[in-house]
Amino acid sequence: MNEISPLFHQINIITHIVAGSVALLLGLTAILTRKGGKRHTISGRLFLVFLTIVIITGLIGVLVFGRNTFLLVITMLSAYVGFSGYRALKTKSNQFKILDAAVAVITLITVFYFIYYFRSIGMIWSPVIIYSTVGYLLFVITYDFIRYLIPQHRYGNLWLYEHILKMMSAFSGILSAFTGTVFPQYQPYSQFLPSVLGTLVAIGFMIYCYNKKLFVATSSSHDETPPLTQHSL
């Protein structure tokens, strides 16, 4: 067992690094390609596949080999927003689903456990990184429960903005874990700047989609306006 464990640990690390690198490339492809297009859809789905591998290997690294436990918080953040972002696109509604609620509750319990754990052993990374990451995850989960109370006619296309923000958060989450690990000498900036950048990009995409929707709605209303006639004058 002592001979197998180091080998398994190395395999897990290599798999984690390779899957994370591929996920970042796929996520970047999804960001840069036309939204709703074939390449965007395929790269987005593959991003979720490799994100799942990153999550599994990350959990193994923390729970089995006792690696940096804060990475589990980053992993849980990326896992939840990735799952929730995919579900927003799939369901396109805010109707209550047991699967969505169950995943949110499990994630919430895990987060509270690690809040207790960090307080008992002391902070591992910068407190501002820990609190901002946990706080953002709690914010997303809280919203996901509150959105069930939004009337369907008011919810409308909010699923699109949810999808954009959550998928960008999943991408920036693993990017933050990557840069924070590879560039420890620049912490905490190497840990939170990718998340800030990802949030700004997500906001930019949401503003673009909102303005595009207004433009289409305005154009449609103009097209439906009957032409002036001599009688109407």
**Low confidence ranges:** 227-233
Helix % is over 70%
Oligomeric category: single chain
Order of helices and strands: HHHHHHHH
| Largest sheet entry | none
* Strand residue content: under 5%
Structural class from helices and strands? mainly alpha
- Total tally of structural domains: 2
Q: What is the tally of helical segments?
A: 8
> Count of DSSP E strands?
0
Written overview of the protein:
- The chain is mainly alpha-helical.
- It folds into 2 domains: 1-67; 69-216.
- 80% of the residues lie in helices and 0% in strands.
- It starts with a helix and ends in a 9-residue tail after the last helix.
- Mean pLDDT is 82; it is low at 227-233.
Task: Briefly characterize the structure.
With 233 residues, the protein is mostly helical. 80% of the residues lie in helices and 0% in strands. It has two domains: 1-67; 69-216.
Annotation keywords:
mainly alpha, 80% helix, 2 domains, single chain, 233 residues
Question: How would you summarize the topology of this molecule?
Answer:
Layout: H1 4-32, H2 38-63, H3 70-91, H4 98-121, H5 127-146, H6 152-155, H7 158-182, H8 189-224
